[in-house]
Design goal:
mainly alpha
């Protein structure tokens, strides 16, 4: 292992227990969401994962080329076409496979979108709580600064601003307003 590899991949014992606990919680969240999958959903997702691999693409294209080559080759040898050009049967099979792939992908994406929506809602709740806690800590520190006799009491406009609770609806309105002006 080179020096650069060591710096990019620090040993696990150099990471705090809090990070390990957080990683475990993320893993547990994913496991809970996976456990909610039905057997049918699980099957569809495994098929979708297979269909998204390069070997499926190579096999699919190879099969189509093989179909056309076999049909044309047999015809040159004097046999009747089993699917004469423009290969209507092959087109039907390809269309059917395309529809199945589309349905499988949409099914998987819908479930993943629901999982992402839950994760985003959780992140929002945690961020709002963290903002509330931070605001309270700033308020307590400012109070302490005013009360301690050996600390110079001064006006701090930035600290006063940070003490105010953030209204998420007001922030969202400002974001929308700015996006409307920029658009």
């Amino acid at each position: 292992m080179t020096i650069s590899e060591k710096s990019c991949n620090p040993p696990s014992d150099e990471v705090s227990d809090a990070i390990h606990q957080n990683l475990d919680k993320v893993k547990q969240f994913a496991e809970r969401e996976d456990a909610k999958r039905t057997r049918l959903q699980w099957s569809v997702e495994h098929v979708t994962v297979f269909l998204g691999q390069p070997r499926f693409l190579v096999g699919f294209v190879g099969s189509c080329v093989g179909w056309i080559a076999l049909d044309c080759g047999l015809h040159k040898l004097g046999y009747a076409y089993f699917d004469a050009p423009p290969f209507s049967l092959l087109q039907g099979i390809v269309t059917f496979i395309g529809v199945l792939i589309t349905i499988a992908v949409l099914t998987r994406q819908n479930r993943l979108a629901r999982v992402e929506e839950t994760r985003t809602h959780l992140e929002l709740q945690i961020n709002l709580l963290a903002e509330q806690k931070t605001t309270k800590i700033i308020m307590l520190l400012e109070e302490l600064r005013h009360d301690l006799p050996n600390v110079q009491d001064r006006q701090d406009k930035h600290a006063e601003t940070l003490q105010a609770a953030t209204n998420p609806d007001a922030v969202l309105a400002v974001i929308r307003e700015r996006n409307d002006l920029a658009g």
